[in-house]
Design brief:
One of its GO terms (molecular function) is hydrolase activity, acting on ester bonds. By secondary structure, the chain is of the alpha+beta class. It contains six helices and five strands, in the order αβααβαββαβα. The chain has helices spanning 2-15, 33-36, 53-76, 87-96, 157-167, 179-182; strands at residues 20-24, 81-85, 128-131, 134-137, 173-174. The protein has a three-stranded mixed β-sheet, covered by helices on one side. Strands 3-4 form a two-stranded antiparallel sheet.
Length: 185
């Protein structure tokens, strides 16, 4: 249903004159503390990067269906330029090879509180809460430029810049087209 609604919306934009579409898939949700801390999986379902395999399987299934929808949209909308971008691969590469790219603790939240992943869904970044009779303020880690995950669901500015640097040249796009060319009139 999500994919069919998405396709219908792209077609609606096309009918209104839209001709250039930049469609990116979803990232590895099994690598987000927001997902795997409140809904843990068995250790046998954790991959070598520390991510929850079942949740990433859902991401990959969605991405497969989205890619199939893009193929159909290209057939149905012959005047449209539709670029499909594989953000999943970029983000998973960053997380699984964090130290290679100058990052540390890829699954640990920079602006969070508590536990192995510094994440608690009851107290978010910038929040204050009383925990065990102590008032706790949730602030940033010491060096966000070395971290990937900001608050359990969003990436840090440094991680987003790294992601952008990977996708801008078109290496992860289908067709392989740079962002400048995809946005060219």
């Amino acid at each position: 249903m999500i994919i069919s609604n998405f396709s219908a919306n792209v077609k609606s934009l096309y009918e209104e004159g839209g001709r250039s579409f930049w469609i990116h898939n979803t990232g590895p949700i099994g690598c987000l503390p927001y997902t795997f801390v409140p809904f843990p999986v068995a250790s046998s379902q954790i991959d070598s990067a520390g991510c929850a395999i079942p949740y990433n399987d859902v991401s990959q299934y969605f991405n497969k269906k989205l890619k199939e929808a893009v193929v159909l949209l290209r057939k149905d909308l012959p005047l449209a330029a539709i670029t499909y971008v594989d953000l999943y691969s970029i983000k998973y590469t960053l997380i699984s090879q964090a130290s290679k790219f100058g990052f540390e603790k890829p699954l640990v939240v920079c602006c969070g509180y508590g536990g192995q992943y510094n994440f608690n869904s009851q107290i978010r970044c910038g929040g204050t809460r009383e925990i065990n009779d102590t008032k706790v303020f949730v602030g940033s880690c010491q060096d966000p430029s070395k971290r990937i995950n900001w608050d359990g669901v969003h990436y840090t500015e440094a991680a987003n810049k790294w992601i952008y640097d990977q996708l801008v040249n078109g290496k992860f796009s289908d067709p392989p087209i740079s962002l400048n060319m995809a946005c060219h009139k």
